[in-house]
Amino acid sequence: MAGPLLQVEDLRHRYAGGPEVLRGLSFALEAGRICVVLGPSGCGKTTLLRLVAGLMAPTAGRVLVDGRPPRPGRDTAMIFQQPRLLPWHTVAQNLALVLPRRGRADRIAALLSRVGLSDTADLYPEELSSGMQQRIALVRSLAVPAPLLLMDEPFANLDDAARARMQHEVRRAVATEPRRGVLFVTHSTAEAEALADEVIRLGTPPAGSSQQG
Ligand SMILES: Nc1ncnc2c1ncn2[C@@H]1O[C@H](COP(=O)(O)OP(=O)(O)OP(=O)(O)O)[C@@H](O)[C@H]1O
């Protein structure tokens, strides 16, 4: 499909009883690109991801993924700072949840090999370190057949070597799929430099300003 993978048009959001968090944010993301969203705590980065995922409606403006409003759970895959694996499932079962039945065992083996965790398939999340769980959560999100990956500080708790490896996997996921893009939230300018094709800075605008982004 032609056109940008993601279009955000004059997006505004105000939580009930709170201040306006997003104040007229517009940008477009082409397929094959990684857009890093930078900004201080509380500026609305996670709010932006929720709106782009279609998990809540904006106060004003609109989001289009492949030219239409995002369908929650279908057009986007999300990964958070915490791994959010299902504790009552093994690692392999957690990955199986997002994979088609056909070829599933081979896909699981390949995904685990990619993050150096081939020997963890039959373990439960609580038997892994938090960094290992996060690597599993990353390959799970990359395996979801959604065009847009929404990543909310996913590598904040990893050591430098693991973070570099995971950043490589994100770049690979974008390079190997014909129509895929990433919106990646971080506080870290170093991470933005390592990953970003483009950067959006959110922040508190000067008093009286009505624009953002
Ligand atoms: N469900 C909610 N109800 C009311 N206010 C909310 C809700 N979620 C977030 N907020 C407020 O909206 C603002 C933006 O929150 P958001 O989580 O989007 O910021 P953030 O940039 O992701 O912050 P951080 O970097 O700390 O995760 C904050 O002031 C927060 O308190």
UniProtKB/TrEMBL annotation:
<protein>
    <submittedName>
        <fullName>NitT/TauT family transport system ATP-binding protein</fullName>
    </submittedName>
</protein>
<feature type="domain" description="ABC transporter">
    <location>
        <begin position="6"/>
        <end position="211"/>
    </location>
</feature>
<dbReference type="GO" id="GO:0005524">
    <property type="term" value="F:ATP binding"/>
</dbReference>
<dbReference type="InterPro" id="IPR003439">
    <property type="entry name" value="ABC_transporter-like_ATP-bd"/>
</dbReference>
<keyword id="KW-0067">ATP-binding</keyword>
<keyword id="KW-0813">Transport</keyword>
<dbReference type="InterPro" id="IPR017871">
    <property type="entry name" value="ABC_transporter-like_CS"/>
</dbReference>
<dbReference type="InterPro" id="IPR027417">
    <property type="entry name" value="P-loop_NTPase"/>
</dbReference>
<dbReference type="InterPro" id="IPR003593">
    <property type="entry name" value="AAA+_ATPase"/>
</dbReference>
<dbReference type="GO" id="GO:0016887">
    <property type="term" value="F:ATP hydrolysis activity"/>
</dbReference>
<comment type="similarity">
    <text>Belongs to the ABC transporter superfamily.</text>
</comment>
<keyword id="KW-0547">Nucleotide-binding</keyword>
<dbReference type="InterPro" id="IPR050166">
    <property type="entry name" value="ABC_transporter_ATP-bind"/>
</dbReference>
<dbReference type="Pfam" id="PF00005">
    <property type="entry name" value="ABC_tran"/>
</dbReference>
